[in-house]
Amino acid sequence: MAARSACAIPRASIPRHRGTRRWPKLGYVVVKPNYRGSGGYGRDFVKEGRKPNGYGKRMQDDKNDVVTWFAAQGYVDPKRACIMGWSYGGYAAARGAQRDPDVWRCAIAGAGVYDMAMMNRWDANNLSTFGSKFQDTSDDPNGISSAQNTDGRWAPILIVAGL
């Protein structure tokens, strides 16, 4: 089997993953990874993403591992992987483009949070049912904020705002 282009879509992302059912017919491998912190696997699994260095680091590593695994199986060409998402998926896509441009060759980020420190100031009273705000999982919110890390090489990115 020839390795194909891949698109990873974080689970908590685009509503019903619009249009992604057509992509395999066009030759793409579409992956919707269950990274630590994603829903549907119980409270403990969600809490894995709330641990220190979850957002923007360990959760991002999980998404990168998807490309590595599928490439090792011969299903995808690791030099043709894109990440896309909406809301948290938009954050993850932008973070992937900024942090890991050698893994992700392109990104489509929709309605994401790109500045965690600003989000923390704006959303100061919103504690989740899991006992912590997602942006508090890092000791350096600016370090996991793509908007605060514009220097360096990024993968090409399309940022979508609105509906």
Characterization of the model:
By secondary structure, the protein is an alpha/beta fold. The protein has a single domain, classed as Rossmann fold (3-Layer(aba) Sandwich), CATH 3.40.50. It has four helices and five strands. The chain has helices at 43-50, 54-72, 88-99, 116-122; strands at 4-8, 29-31, 76-86, 106-110, 157-160. Strands 2-1-3-4-5 form a five-stranded parallel β-sheet. Helix 4 (116-122) links the parallel strand 4 and strand 5. The longest helix is centred in the middle third of the chain and has 19 residues, at 54-72. The N and C termini lie far apart (38 Å).
Features:
17% strand, Rossmann fold, single chain, 163 residues, alpha/beta, five-stranded parallel sheet
Summary, kept brief:
28% of the residues lie in helices and 17% in strands. The protein has helices at 43-50, 54-72, 88-99, 116-122; strands at 4-8, 29-31, 76-86, 106-110, 157-160.
- At the fourth level of CATH, the homologous superfamily is Alpha/Beta hydrolase fold, catalytic domain
Radius of gyration: 15 Å
Number of strands: 5
In oligomeric terms, what are we looking at? single chain
- Tell me the overall shape: globular
Q: Which strands sit side by side, in order, in the main sheet?
A: 2-1-3-4-5
Q: How many structural domains does the protein architecture include?
A: 1
Give a quick account of the main beta sheet: strands, pairing sense, barrel closure.
Answer: 5 strands, parallel
Q: Which blocks of ≥5 consecutive residues have pLDDT under 50?
A: none
> How many H/I helices?
4
Structural class: alpha/beta
